[in-house]
From TrEMBL:
This is MerR family transcriptional regulator. Transmembrane segments: none annotated. GO terms for molecular function: DNA binding; DNA-binding transcription factor activity. It comes from the Bacteria. InterPro entries: Cbl-bd_cap, DNA-bd_dom_put_sf, MerR-type_HTH_dom, MerR_fam, Meth_synthase_dom.
Length: 299
């Protein structure tokens, strides 16, 4: 794993990680000598961890009203003072997300845990995950697609967060018997990104619901063996692949094989968001995001 630690970044990596465009980075280098990168033999810019940290701080402070001409003159101590003064004024979580990024890139468990516990001192686990981790995970997805991080980075973060969620679930009281609704949470075959679904499971249990978490790679046939209840609400998260006719066929088979008249099927995730047509059934609902689904569950 240590071989995957990134100590050198391209200018495109900086753009993906900080949200600051390549154009602005180059302009600030010319105008303010902002980062002063090293160069390869072919004259390609290469940036260090310290360059990335500085740019993340700049990105954070620009959103808080600072001007780049002012920030370009700051030393490390001045950056720390400015960041702490902004944090004292509001609950902007971007700095925490930036710290999680640095912890991920360097496989730095100490920084990850320190940032996590700093947040937990001021907010519930539910709010922490929804307000900080969900945006962080969405950004990880885009970083992975642009090759700014490796699969090892994504797995590192996912495994830490999975442990956090399971710890919280373990300490929740369990609902009593006799509930008419039973929630069945699963990922279909070839779907592996389970953190969002696992957090929905945590939320359902927190609300006292009867929730069963089956995890990834569950086919329709396997779901036929579930014990009967008055109503099943199936919940799934689809991100892998592109929408095509196979999804419509999947929905038809799902309804035919599993769903009673009163049953429901709730879905979210990038794949179902791009469906050219709806699922074709009033019993199947698609939500724009995990946040929208959770709001619906809690109302």
């Amino acid at each position: 794993m240590l071989d995957n630690i990134k100590t050198s970044f391209s200018i495109s990596d900086l753009q993906e990680l900080s949200g600051i465009s390549v154009h602005n980075i180059r302009m600030w280098e010319r105008r303010y000598n902002l980062l002063d990168p090293s160069r390869t033999h072919s004259n390609i810019r290469r940036y260090s961890n310290e360059h990335l940290k500085k740019l993340l701080n700049i990105s954070f402070l620009l959103k808080s009203g600072y001007k780049i001409s002012e920030l370009a003159t700051f030393n490390d101590q001045q950056f720390n003072i400015a960041v702490n003064s902004v944090l004292a004024l509001d609950n902007d979580y971007q700095l925490a997300i930036n710290d999680f990024k640095m912890a991920m890139l360097n496989f730095d468990s100490r920084l990850f845990e320190a940032t996590y516990h700093r947040l937990r001192d001021t907010m519930s686990f539910y709010d922490l995950f929804l307000k900080v981790m969900v945006p962080f995970l969405e950004h990880i997805g885009s970083l992975w697609q642009t090759n700014s991080i490796t699969v090892a980075h994504e797995h590192y973060v996912s495994n830490i967060l999975r442990q956090k969620i399971f710890y919280q679930i373990e300490h929740l009281p369990r609902s009593g018997p006799g509930q008419k609704e039973r929630y069945i949470l699963f990922l279909p075959l070839n779907e592996l990104h389970e953190l969002g679904l696992l957090f929905i499971h945590y939320t359902l249990l927190m609300l006292g619901k009867d929730s069963i978490y089956l995890g990834p790679n569950v086919d329709i046939e396997s779901l036929e063996g579930l014990p009967q209840s008055e109503q099943h609400i199936y919940v799934s998260y689809m991100t892998m692949g592109s929408p095509d006719e196979d999804l419509s066929g999947y929905f038809r088979e799902f309804r035919k094989s599993l769903m009673k008249a009163e049953d429901k099927f709730w879905l979210t995730g990038a794949r179902v968001q791009k469906l050219p047509k709806g699922p074709g059934s009033k019993n199947i609902s698609i939500f724009k995001s995990i946040y929208d689904l959770l709001v619906f569950i809690k109302t």
